[in-house]
Amino acid sequence: MTDKLTVSVLGTGIMGAAMARNLVRAGHTVRAWNRTRAKAEPLAADGAHVADTPAEAVQGADVVLTMLYDGHAVLEVMREAAPALPSGAVWVQSTTAGLESVADLAGFARDHGLVFYDAPVLGTRQPAEAGQLTVLAAGPAQGRETVAPVFDAVGARTVWTGEDGAAGSATRLKLVANSWVLAVTAATGEVLALSRALGVDPRDFFDLIEGGPLDMGYLRAKAGLVLDGGLSPAQFAVATAEKDARLIMRAGEENGVRLDVAAATAERFARAAAQGHADEDMAAAYFASFDEKPA
Fold this sequence. Notes:
Blueprint: E1 6-10, H1 14-25, E2 29-33, H2 37-40, E3 49-50, H3 54-57, E4 63-66, H4 71-81, E5 90-93, H5 99-111, E6 115-118, E7 121-122, H6 125-129, E8 133-138, H7 144-154, E9 155-162, H8 169-198, H9 202-209, H10 217-227, H11 238-254, H12 260-277
Parallel strand pairs: 1-2, 1-4, 2-3, 4-5, 5-6, 8-9
Antiparallel strand pairs: 7-8
């Protein structure tokens, strides 16, 4: 089998558009679709075919890649695509979805003769655009030679977590990783807010922890977006971060674990969204610390 494939990318938001571009750059034929066509249209200039419907997008596809808002959206779109899906096509499901959704999506794949890979990615806009995502993948060993060129085009590293995509082992690891990412993001906002309230220059805090075990490049990057006014365009949006936080909470509840930090983080994102920051970078959770926007 040639390593040049026809890949259908369903969902061309922040992550999907970047992944589609990197697939084109790697020499693959890319057929892209987005519910709001205007978000997919710029991909035509990069060499992708922009389709009007999911069914049109998946015609002749070797691999279908879904990168949508949540599991419900994925199932809805794949139902629209189903009449045109070729039997035996590979489905790379990269949307961050809940564990229940992964099982439902894997069942849909089984019913339609698709080879299912649970393959969420770790990273935001910048690594996505650079093709430096980390792909977390679970799915049958036989057939990985088909998905390998796709993963190589969009990511710098692929971490295999198992051979049964329906078990959701990749999604489980993604939820654990996201619980850390979102907690650190929320804590960054609170550090900046408390600094402001107490009249502390944030640079004094960064100087205090510099080079020690409390220092983090991610902390400095997210803080910089707030301090330097770089919240738009979002690396990862507040609204999507809230959705992921609630998926994490639900996974904990369903498995007998109380996740107080995840619950509080979800509420911070919800408040920031209500204040008008839904489409800004998730670092805008900073504003949830204030009843009014700080001057």
